[in-house]
Amino acid sequence: MIAVMNNYSERNEFTSYEMMTIAASRMLKSDDVCFVGIGAPSAACNVARLSHAPDITLIYESGTIGTAPDILPLSIGDGELCDTALTTVSVPEMFRYWLQGGHVTIGFLGAAQIDKFGNINTTIIGDYHNPKIRLPGGGGAPEIASQAGQIFVTMKQSLRSMVPKIDFFTSYGHGNGYNDRQKLGIKTTGPTALITDLAIWKSHPETKEFIVTNLHPGVSKEDVQKNCGWEVTFGELVTTTPLPSAIELDVLRELHRRTNASHRRL
Amino acid sequence: MILFWQGLVKLAKFVSLQDAVLDVMTDGLCVALEGFTHLIPHASAHEIIRKGFKNLTLVRMTPDIIYDQMIGMGCASKLIFSYAGNPGVGLLRRLRDAVENQWPVPLEIEEHSHAAMANAYEAGAASMPCALFKGYLGAELRQVNPNIKMIFCPFTGEELAVVPSIRPDVSFIHAQKADRKGNVLIEGIIGVQKEAVLSAAKSVVTVEEIIEDFETHPNAVILPHWTIDYIAEVPGAAHPSYAQGYYARDNAAYKEWDTISANRELYLKWMAEHVMQQTPDVFAERVRFTNPQSK
Q: How far is CA A135 from CA A36, A115, A156, B25, in A?
């Protein structure tokens, strides 16, 4: 737990996971149409919906459009998502009409490995044909990364996850930076923000490298560098991420309380 | 009506799941057991395992627990897939053991993205040889999977991805209801099940219940009886997946699978007890029906 003294917050203790999730949720607006990855992105998207972005459209790749789950789904296709959705379409329709059709403004992804240009690996550690660790694979992510208007990524920082060179290009970010993405014929913006448990990173408008713009409360530049495998570039003006508000913490904790109660063996 | 396509007009037959599996299956077939988290045909997978079919090419977008079980029992020699995880829990440990250590038998993999598989099923249902879509831009799967090709649109010059269509020898799905004629109603998250049935040479559908008439709306997803070969009534057949309107997903069981599948001996013991010594009837006891009309 990070203890922070603050007179304006009713909660003065929160975990780095909570800070990450809340910081990620603040990236979203009510008029966004967001394609949600499972895990940390799903928590952030639902905190946004339950706090400052009540009208956000959340889409899960199982076909649920405009879903408003009371509990966090364990998978991308829990019944809760369908029960609370505006409509549920088939998976071919989801990928063809809604994602490829250009109706999604934000893709919110997680990653096993990421590099400083937002290229993501969720496929394999080691050589593809002789793997050290076989990961689940891309699922919807390769096309979310190229077809959603822009991409946010949220993940915990570590030397294993934030690497100079990813083992496999599952989902393309900005390649080696600059306009590599456009050269491949990709028309969408690509990764613009990375929200970790330590900091907020934004893509540099020209080089496309992730630059640290905010450090979370109590986190130093050294902490960020120690948990990142590439040489970190910090913005000219690095500010402190605003503390989680009492409302944000309550929403997130209630969401997890309801989720844990629901996933327990009855 | 005259259909010029491979299956011609079918007549859905009501049989036991055991008889359906024995009739449609042989070693070496290309088989799809579809379900996108919802309505996963667990009972059918267990029946295939019990009958000991080998050398199968298994196709599924999201090969979760059932393909982990089939691979671990040595049923498969090839897997075509787009996301091989236990959703929200982690990795598939029997699949990993097969890929990393060739246990119990080597497993060839053909890996795609979801968009590619969804398009490939739809192309199969539409009797197309291949599926065309905007995809795989910058994705390294293009370098390791020879079944991903790029072509240029003859009208605009835009680069597009092409993959072979999916045409399984047999598709298995689970659905909520069949009527007495053998028409099948499927509701909720419907995944690629309609495409899986229409693209396959033969299809087997398990249902929660058989009823007189559907009371539903004009746009309901219904597979007419002449698209299906066999229907078996197996209440609870999706467990630990779920059936919308009948029972909820058993998320605890998905989490427990992570422990069971982590160790070969524990896995084999679990399979012996919960699969090999059982029959399809056991599934009704594994779920808690929320629908009061259900058995």
A: 19, 17, 17, 31
- Closest partner CB to B114 (pick from A61, A146, A265): A61
* Total domain count, chain A: 1
Confidence of residue A78 (pLDDT cuts 50, 70, 90): confident
* Residues B185, B158 within the same domain: no
Quick one: pLDDT band at residue B100, thresholds 50, 70, 90? Answer: confident
Using DSSP bridges, classify how beta strands A33-36 and A106-109 pair: parallel, antiparallel or unpaired: parallel
Distance between the two ends of chain B, CA-based, in angstroms?
37
Contact A90/B84, CB-based, under 8 Å? no
B196 and B172 in one domain? Answer: yes
Complex-level ipTM: 0.94
Domain residue limits at B151: 127-164
- The enclosing H or E element of B170 equals strand B170-179
Residue of A nearest to B132 (CA): A96
Count of helices and strands (H, E) across chain B: 10, 15
Least confident of A123-137, A188-202, B130-144, B189-203: A123-137
Count the domains in chain B: 2
**A contacts of B111 (beta carbons < 8 Å):** 123, 137
Kindly state the average pLDDT of the residues A210-234: 98
A200 in any annotated domain: yes
Q: In chain B, which residues have their Cβ closer than 8 Å to the Cβ of A88?
A: 188-190
Distance between terminal CA atoms of chain A? 31
Which of A10, A13, A18, A61 is catalytic? The answer is A61
User: Is A123 within 8 Å of B145 (Cβ atoms)?
Assistant: no
Say whether both B72 and B176 belong to one domain. Answer: yes
* Chain A residue at shortest CA distance from B40: A77
In a domain, B292, yes or no: no
Torsional class of A173: left (φ above 0), alpha (ψ -120 to 50), beta (otherwise) = alpha
Query: From A98, which residue of chain B is nearest by alpha-carbon distance?
Result: B115
Indicate if the pLDDT at residue B72 is higher than 90: yes
B97 with B72: CB under 8 angstroms?
yes
Per-residue pLDDT at B295: 46
The whole-angstrom separation of Cα A151 and Cα A25 is: 14
Helix, strand and coil content of chain B, in percent to the nearest 5, comes to 30, 25, 45
Closest partner residue to A78 (CB to CB) among B133, B136, B249 is B249
Average pLDDT score, chain B: 94
CA gap A213, A237 in Å, rounded? 7
Supply the CATH number for residue A245's domain. Answer: 3.40.1080.10
In terms of residue numbers, what domain contains A181?
2-259
Contact between B71 and B106 (Cβ < 8 Å): no
d(CA B91, CA A35): 22
Q: Are residues B52 and B92 in the same domain?
A: yes
